[in-house]
Automatic annotation (TrEMBL):
Transmembrane segments: none annotated. The lineage of its organism: Bacteria, Pseudomonadati, Pseudomonadota, Gammaproteobacteria, Lysobacterales. GO terms for cellular component: cytosol. Gene3D superfamilies: YgfB uncharacterised protein family UPF0149, PF03695 (1.20.120.740). This is YecA family protein. InterPro entries: YgfB-like, YgfB-like_sf. Pfam families: UPF0149. Belongs to the UPF0149 family.
Amino acid sequence: MAATGPIGHDDIDALVMRLRLGTEASELHGSLCGYLAGGARPQGGDVLAALQLDGEATDPTAEDLALLQRLTRQCERELADSELGFEPLLPDDDRPLVERAEAVVDWCRGFLGGFGLAGTAAHASLSEEAQEILRDFGTIAASSFDFNNEDEDEDALIEVQEFVRVGALLLHAECNRHDPASSGSVH
């Protein structure tokens, strides 16, 4: 993993395994994105404490903490990107459909948890559209999938992923519109 390149799903997966976080890589990314989209920032840069995640046996190394800080900055940049380039970190398209669909469920579950941890200040005045997106994320997070037609199922998953991507961007824009620090870095 290059220290300057974008952090990918496999990088987060390795971190989750090292720290035995008891979560999936997509759920961790979703939690962080939900937390940031909800207008919060990790105090002192402690991402795991902000997301209320503790490793079972291992304290994070300085390298692990640096990776989490880089991931936070990457998420902040992507969510605030005027080109709308944000993408939820999910397994690559060459992974089995079932694995990718479960990762979308995990990501939405994490997003909702992180969004809730962000607090209620920005949430009190959410638009009806934003509230509907949160409800839809809840529906996705509670979903289980039956796969019958690979092509149709693949198309449906792509549509859900696009909805999640755009929904996260809308929630971030709505909750961070009055926060000049929303494009800032983690302290």
